[in-house]
Amino acid sequence: MVVGAALLGCRSEARWLRFVASHLAGMFPYLPQRPGYNKRLRSALPLVKRAIRMLAADTDFWLDNVWIADSTPVECGRSRPTVKRSELAGWAGYGYCASHSRFFWGLRLYLVCAPAGMPIMWALADPKLDEREVLAAMLEVDAELVADRPGLLLIADKGFKARWFEDELAAQGVQLLRPSMRNEQSRPGEHLLKPVRQLIESVNDTLKGQLDLEHHGGRTVEGVATRVAQRILAMAAAIWHNHHTGQPITRSLIAFDH
User: Fold this and answer.
1) Is the pTM of this model over 0.85?
2) Best CATH choice for the domain 61-231 from the list 3.40.50.1110, 3.60.21.10, 3.50.50.60, 3.30.420.10
């Protein structure tokens, strides 16, 4: 149900439950009321995380030795009173998005995916935290995934530049490929970055433009985390289905959004 809601662009849980009762009753013979559905949704976060990992592992993309990493804002509020009253205070915070030249209050979604867009690992963090520290912690938590992929190439943007970060990756057997800074010499393989970097931007566009990532509607820690995971699961499910049915574009949502 959460995948269907994300793919069909239904942001309101009440409207989605009415739609399911009217059009999909045969698929879901039992439907809880809205409070029960919301409670089940928030408690399902571990299950949603497991489902994302299982779908990714059931594709050829799981074994890809090239990963792409980036972060994108997940806005959680705009007005000052909302910020003061929000249960997210202490986790969410103010940040700046250089790509869109705007400040925001909320979180940052860190996504590591295969070039085809299949999510490998993801995390939500305070936007004030150092991007390199967050990504390093993600790789440390899932160190077994890195160890299973000798010669792993991690592609990231200029924001991940740091000698200590590259040394830490090298200790794990990971090579970092990023654009060179103005005061640096051209880095090996940099000419290959432009088309590959566009992939992660298009993945973020899928999450935001087609799956309404920034219109998640979450108001608590569990609510935001589950609704973000819901969108990632929907994208992973679409990629998994398209891959196994031999579709030419694995990340296309056209067959599911109407």
Assistant:
1) yes
2) 3.30.420.10
